[in-house]
Write a structure and sequence with these properties.
Elements lengths: L3 E5 L7 H14 L3 E5 L3 H5 L5 E6 L3 H11 L3 E4 L19 H6 L8 E6 L2 H11 L4 E6 L4 H10 L5 E6 L2 H9 L7 E4 L4 H14 L7 E21 L7 E8 L2 E6 L14 E6 L3 E3 L5 E3 L8 E6 L4 E22 L5 E7 L5 E4 L2 E4 L8 E6 L3 E3 L2 E3 L7
Parallel strand pairs: 1-2, 1-8, 2-3, 3-4, 4-5, 5-6, 6-7, 7-8
Antiparallel strand pairs: 9-12, 9-16, 9-20, 10-11, 10-13, 10-15, 11-20, 13-14, 15-16, 16-17, 18-19, 21-22
Helix pairs in contact: 1-8, 5-6, 7-8
Length: 388
């Protein structure tokens, strides 16, 4: 599931300068949407590239007339109406003005906004969800229980967006009932809280890999080969690196060059990944040949515990260097291998931690990621392929 962060920036937040500061902070932090009043759409679009959702009063004819000027990516009904309690809920939802607007053909709003005051509003939010692409729900007296109920009852026909005020609230919303909300609507002026909420969103969307140790069965010097250094636009931590190897089913964990040495400065943006023929794992779970990498491509960063994130390639640096052939055998008896540069700065991960490839010996246990599937043009497939 792809999670999203929405930022509340309508008139309830304050004057335009206050709203502008919040929106600018959101754009810089990487939020997905801002939710504003319809009259603010044009000036919000001038602040930067961002998806804009706009509250509408539900007047379809006004919406049609202003569509060319507003350029909102989505319109939301419910503010100053039944959704936020300004107008009383009808006893029979068939008489609801908000729902009638959502059911309009052509110029109907894309979503509904509902504050959950009690069970009636919870039921109303469920009715809105049946008609809307986006359903924004704000818990008032209760937060978790109504969200749990809606997650359990609402299907995939709508994106459920839960109102939150902190990054920890966002984490709870994303994790509720394991499935979680599709997104959160964050209401805060705190720049750090906006940034932390975006980090929580990114963390929730990341893959976690099962890594295991394989026994080194052979390590030998070979001749020179064209070696690729992957220089990313991100700084990597001491326990991070990439998964690379000659065989897509078995990739070796190679550390980033974060360590200082007496002879070479650290380059924490770099992984010396091996020869041009080898694979590197990508964020979609596929692979790319090292020879194919170029500026702007995405690669997957992984730490020694299997936690992953994405990084943009800034440069792929190819040079002829002397190499080692490293072969290892998994617990299931599968033999895998790769070519790595013969240099003390290239570190793999063994049971003893970071280990220079020049210090590897047969019998050492080296960290790998092993899958039973093959790849074809970087995509995983169920096919019998022999690699040796």
């Amino acid at each position: 599931m792809t999670r999203s962060v929405w930022l509340k920036a309508d008139s309830e937040v304050g004057d335009w300068e206050t709203r502008k500061r919040r929106i600018t902070a959101g754009i810089e932090a990487g939020v997905d949407w801002v939710l504003v009043d319809e009259e603010d759409v044009e000036r919000v679009s001038e602040l930067g590239e961002i998806n804009i959702a706009a509250f509408t009063n539900g007047d379809v004819h006004v919406m049609e007339a202003e569509a060319a000027d507003s350029e909102a990516d989505a319109t939301i009904v419910g503010k100053d109406g039944e959704g936020d309690g300004t107008v009383d809920l009808p006893s029979d939802f068939s008489g609801s003005a908000d729902l009638s607007t959502l059911r309009q053909n052509g110029a109907a709003p894309d979503g509904g906004y509902v504050r959950i005051f009690d069970e009636d509003y919870e039921a109303f939010a469920e009715a809105v969800a049946a008609e809307a692409d986006f359903t924004i729900v704000i818990g008032e007296n209760w937060q978790i229980i109504p969200l749990e109920n809606l997650i359990a009852r609402v299907g995939e026909e709508t994106d459920l967006i839960a109102g939150v005020r902190t990054a920890e609230d966002a984490r709870t919303a994303y994790e509720t009932l394991e499935l979680g909300a599709d997104g959160v609507l964050l209401d805060t002026d705190e720049v750090d809280e906006i940034r932390k909420t975006v980090e929580v969103r990114d963390e929730m969307g990341r893959e976690s890999l099962d890594l295991e140790y394989a026994e080194v069965t052979a390590i030998e010097q070979t001749g020179s080969a064209d070696r690729v250094c992957i220089d990313t636009g991100s700084l990597m931590e001491h326990d991070e690196g990439m998964l690379v190897g000659s065989m897509a089913r078995g990739l070796f964990f190679v550390h980033a060059e974060t360590a200082e040495s007496p002879y070479v400065a650290s380059r924490p943006f770099r992984v010396n990944a091996g020869a041009v023929h080898a694979y590197v794992r990508t964020p979609d779970g596929g692979t790319k040949y090292l020879s194919e990498l170029q500026s702007g491509d995405e690669v997957q960063i992984v730490d020694a515990n299997g936690r992953t994130r994405e990084a943009i390639v800034g440069r792929a640096k190819i040079e002829k260097r002397p190499m080692f052939r490293v072969q290892a055998e998994t617990k299931d008896g599968d033999r895998i291998e790769t070519l790595l540069q013969n240099a003390e700065t290239i570190k793999v991960h063994t049971q003893n931690g970071r280990t220079a490839v020049t210090d590897l010996e047969p019998g050492d246990e080296i960290l790998i990621h092993h899958e039973d599937t093959a790849t074809h043009f970087g995509e995983r497939i169920e096919e019998s392929i022999i690699e040796k």
